[in-house]
Write a structure and sequence with these properties.
Elements lengths: L5 H22 L6 H4 L21 E16 L2 E2 L7 H6 L1 H9 L1 H4 L1 E2 L6 E17 L3 E18 L2 H8 L10 E27 L3 E29 L5 E13 L18 E15 L19 E17 L3 E13 L10 H13 L6 E3 L2 E4 L3 E9 L4 E10 L12 E9 L3 E4 L2 E4 L3 E4 L1 E5 L2 E5 L3 H4 L6 E13 L31
Antiparallel strand pairs: 1-4, 1-22, 2-3, 4-5, 5-6, 6-7, 7-8, 7-9, 8-11, 9-10, 10-13, 10-14, 11-12, 14-15, 15-16, 16-17, 16-18, 17-20, 18-19, 20-21, 21-22
């Protein structure tokens, strides 16, 4: 049968997984989307950075119709910009499917031996609202999210995926690898947020906020490679000195189905998520609007700077329906005549791998449930007002591992200058991804519509394409200090008291 048997089937299955991951980016719209979340008119979108930021919102009522974002970055493969038809891929499902089906022809991989990594985040935030009442703010939203992460992946694995196991330059080389992680998860969530100003004096305040989310897991896959010491001798044989890895899968697709037929999506797991944040704000003037009775009359207080810290995406989803957990511990195993094996389904491939490596087709099975952690991170934020309308925001996203099996978030550092008014905003996000990849983006908001990217070079044709980033939002809001059927709230409206104009009198807190 030659290599058209076992290894060809593995190669096809791995490519299908890669296609599935890349297709998510084309048809869903997830990382930080700082053009939406760094300003004071982001509404529900600011919750992704710090729930306490609701207290600095420039709107007292904000309605989210739909917000979406997508992000993909890797250090293994790239598209040449001249060959990548971004509009076709983003707008035409059939064109994208055709394009990604021929991965080997469209992708070029870097020929080095560094560890490989990848992050993918795609999400849609559905209907939601935020209400600011003075010292309290409330919010709720619905969302669907997809996330995938690969860290510490040995360089030879993606090369074998791209070139096939018969790639002779990697034969008869002893590979020793450890701590590789692959994880993917799709889920829906319903969230409720609350923020409160705990301490307030004349020129500053301290606010706290949190978001509690109920999570509904749709599908998941992970593989945790603890250790591997092996040699690929040829397309037919492999010498394993030691191999230790776990993997789990939860999906509504029938794994015995040869053709991966579409199946209705089911809720295969449930869990909880939590975001919590603290924010300290330094004001230019004292407060004067706490005596106002109507919510709409309470003005947004201009600040000199604000600083915050938050814990994001703490939590996990436990999968117990249509789920499998497997564990492999192999020592001193020489696998031969692998090219004579043919697979008709993923389930058969798992069973045969267990039989060949462990001696029994059920030996790897550890149960029908597992728990996969969210991409938890700690975020630090600082926002400084240069003038009434010009700000500079800095932010750091630092990943935190909280579960044995988990999605992992990449580290990111941002500097975001922005021009901001209630109905017009422009920002220029400058970022450093994973401490090593510089990026330049742009975002603009016209009233209720925001669009942006953190990789504008993708659309200018000035670099190879190792990732994608795009986000958009449609939100309606009512500005603080402006009642819907009334005028501004008087002579002490913020427009009349910015930098150098008369100070406000301090009013008692109600």
């Amino acid at each position: 049968m030659g290599r058209s048997g076992h290894w060809q089937n593995i190669h096809t299955a791995l490519v299908l997984v890669a296609v599935h991951m890349l297709m998510l980016i084309a048809f869903a719209r997830g990382q930080e989307a700082v053009g939406l979340s760094s300003g004071n008119y982001g509404g529900i979108s600011i919750l992704r950075v710090n729930p306490a930021h609701m207290m600095q919102s420039g709107a007292y009522l904000q309605l989210n119709l739909v917000s979406s974002s997508s992000f993909f970055q890797n250090n293994f493969v790239y598209w040449q910009q001249s060959d990548m038809r971004i509009p076709d891929v983003l707008n035409d499902r059939d064109a994208a499917k055709e394009y990604f089906t021929h991965l080997k022809e469209t992708l070029t991989y870097y020929q080095n031996t560094s560890l490989k990594s990848m992050s993918l985040a795609a999400g849609v935030i559905g209907p939601g609202f935020m209400l600011h009442t003075g010292r309290w703010a409330f919010g709720t939203y619905t969302a669907v999210r997809s996330y995938a992460s690969i860290t510490n992946l040995p360089y030879e694995i993606p090369v074998f995926v791209m070139e096939d196991i018969n790639f002779k330059p990697l034969h008869n080389i002893r590979f020793v690898d450890e701590n590789a992680n692959i994880a993917m998860m799709n889920w829906a969530e319903v969230g409720a947020s609350l923020a409160h100003t705990l301490i307030r004096d004349t020129y500053s305040d301290l606010s706290v906020g949190f978001t509690v989310r109920r999570l509904y897991g749709i599908s998941a896959f992970f593989m945790k490679g603890n250790f591997a010491d092996y040699t690929v001798v040829s397309a037919e044989s492999m010498d394993i000195r030691k191999m230790d890895f776990d993997f789990g899968i939860a999906t509504s697709i029938d794994l015995n189905d040869k053709y991966f037929s579409n199946a209705p999506s089911h809720i295969n797991g449930k869990g909880w998520g939590l975001d919590v944040g603290v924010n300290y704000t330094r004001r230019r003037y004292g407060y004067n609007n706490n005596f106002r009775k109507k919510i709409c009359e309470k003005e947004a207080e201009p600040y000199v700077w604000r600083i915050g810290v938050s814990l994001l995406d703490a939590g996990s989803i436990g999968f117990a329906a249509r789920s499998q957990l497997h564990s492999f511990m192999v020592k001193d195993k020489y696998l031969d005549q692998l090219d004579t094996i043919r697979y008709t389904s993923v389930q058969q491939m798992i069973a045969d791998a267990s039989k060949i490596m462990l001696g029994d087709s059920d030996a790897s099975y550890r149960g029908n449930h597992f728990r996969l952690g969210l991409p938890t991170a700690i975020s630090l934020q600082f926002d400084y007002a240069l003038t009434k309308k010009v700000f500079v925001n800095t932010m750091a996203i630092l990943p935190v591992k909280t579960n044995k099996y988990t999605l992992l978030r990449p580290a990111q550092i941002y500097i975001v200058p922005r021009y901001e008014t209630p109905y017009l905003e422009f920002s220029l996000p400058l970022s450093l991804y994973d401490y090593r990849i510089p990026r330049i983006g742009a975002a603009v908001r016209f009233g209720f519509l925001t669009i942006g990217t953190e990789r504008i070079s993708n659309y200018l044709g000035i670099s190879n394409l190792t990732g994608l980033d795009v986000y958009a939002s449609i939100q309606l809001f009512l500005e603080r200090g402006h009642c819907l059927f009334g005028r501004k709230t008087g002579a002490c409206h913020p427009d009349d008291t910015w930098y150098g104009r008369r100070k406000r009198s301090v009013q008692p807190i109600q």
